[in-house]
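Q: How would the structure tokens look for this protein?
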Amino acid sequence: MTSVTMAGHEHHERILAMIDGLPALADMLDQRPRPARFEERFASVQAFITGTLVPHMETVESTLYPELDRLMQNRHSMAQMRREHDEIRGLVERLGTFGEAIRAGALGPAGSMGLRRVLYRLYAMLKVHLAEEEEYLRVLEHSLSDKEQAELVRGLEHATAEPLSL
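A: Here is the predicted structure in token form.
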């Protein structure tokens, strides 16, 4: 049986592979001329974020967070983690706006600076957020029976059903 910690960690490792590339993508914005592969790499990252990361957040919010709220009897609620998800969604929206400018060939110096800021904020927030989620996974593993963990793992399966590659 796969524990909830192992299942979550496996998914986080694949997400981290994408996140760890965000600073390099941001640094490409400073290169003159901008590398030809920038647009392709940006489109790949944006697709990963909207197609994998956001659904992962939604799945975690609907499966793991309610169970953690129950276990901790709302003394240490998941409200902060949900707020972080909202902040991440806001950054993803801004990423989409910059994507439109990139596709239109209209990303000027100010846009490049703004996109760098978004990419670095996403990087920092996601690194910390996923590390916190890892700690919460341990709470679940130590507090739930094997059967309860198996139910949560099944709930997470649809988020990991698609290959997580760039």
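The chain has a mean pLDDT of 90.

The first helix runs from residue 4 to 19.

Upvote if useful.
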